[in-house]
Design goal:
Blueprint lengths: L3 H16 L5 H28 L6 H4 L2
Amino acid sequence: MKNSNEMVKQAQKAFDDFMDGRIGDNELASASRMVDSMTKIAVIKLKYNQFQNDHSKIEYLEGS
């Protein structure tokens, strides 16, 4: 996934696939863990930038 918008689309697709019975709960849980990890990484980067008073772009968030 290139950016946060793409992550949201992929998460929605995984949920839709689960609701339609195309994937199981293990696949949905895996997708959920990936979204959680990517979100936590973005938060860490934002907090680090704030701590360093650094205004450099975070590519993952720029695509949103």
